[in-house]
Amino acid sequence: MRSQSVPTSQLAGAGRNIAVESRESVAERDSRRDRRWNAAAYHRVSQPQVSWGKKILAGLRLRGDEVLMDAGCGTGRLTGELLDALEDGRVVGVDISENMLAAAREHLRPQFGSRIQLVAADLAHLPFEQTFDGIFSTAAFHWVPNQKQLFLSLWHALRPGGWLRAQCGGARNLARLRRRIDRLGTTPRFAAYLAGFPTPWVFHNAEEAAALLVEVGFRETETNLDPALTVFDDAQTYSEFVRTVIVRLHLERLPDASLRTEFVDELTRQASTDDPPFALDYWRLNLSGSKPA
Ligand SMILES: C[S@@+](CC[C@H](N)C(=O)[O-])C[C@H]1O[C@@H](n2cnc3c(N)ncnc32)[C@H](O)[C@@H]1O
Fold it and tell me: Ligand 1 test: best mutation among 30, 34, 98, most atoms within 8 Å of CB?
């Protein structure tokens, strides 16, 4: 994992080194897996995520000089918007995927210079202590398997009085597509590779998310779910989106390109019969809370 120029005074304390070392092997393994995001394709197809994220950004009440984290910043499309909203502040974009960070660097550095810093890290094991005035995050938390560790790690990274405003996939997210993926994964063509593959996402309902936030120490918490049905123009845009964003890890398990194409084509064919066709039944979970001052 590439290192970052974060002052060592902000890194986790030396007393936690043994635990950090054993956890890093997990983070490194996950990092290798997450290198496989196709960052160029994600940058191109992520308009749904950008529109949802812009609504969260619009609700932030910023002074303009904060130090903020964009947690799971991806290729930085929303990180740039966050920087635009901060006159004198700085943003640290954190992501586990080197591919995504490389795209974000290319996209953000020319415009924002030293106001943007990009750090490769697992959100569940962040190398920060009391560093940020606020944490913004969109479309990332549901990819993190250990949710309690995730929220604890975010809590540690916040300064006293700091805030969290985030959105990710929530309960019922993509329920129809997930049923189809599971069914297809048990058919003779795919079962050898996908049967028993655990779901790569965690989708909480509002109550579960609030309980987790409170358990790790957040106060003034608010959580709620929003439906976000997303309709694509045609089979091609639908299938490129599903391939790039949703079934990325399923496709990795298939041994060749023709089987991967067959998997996405069958999901696309099924979506063509829906009313409206080529629609994804997204549900977004909004989360906010603050760390007592
Ligand atoms: C769907 S993208 C969202 C990117 C961006 N926030 C947006 O809304 O366009 C999810 C991002 O979360 C990152 N991610 C997933 N698990 C992570 C983890 N454990 N630690 C850090 N980043 C993670 C992925 O690498 C990916 O860049």
Answer: 34
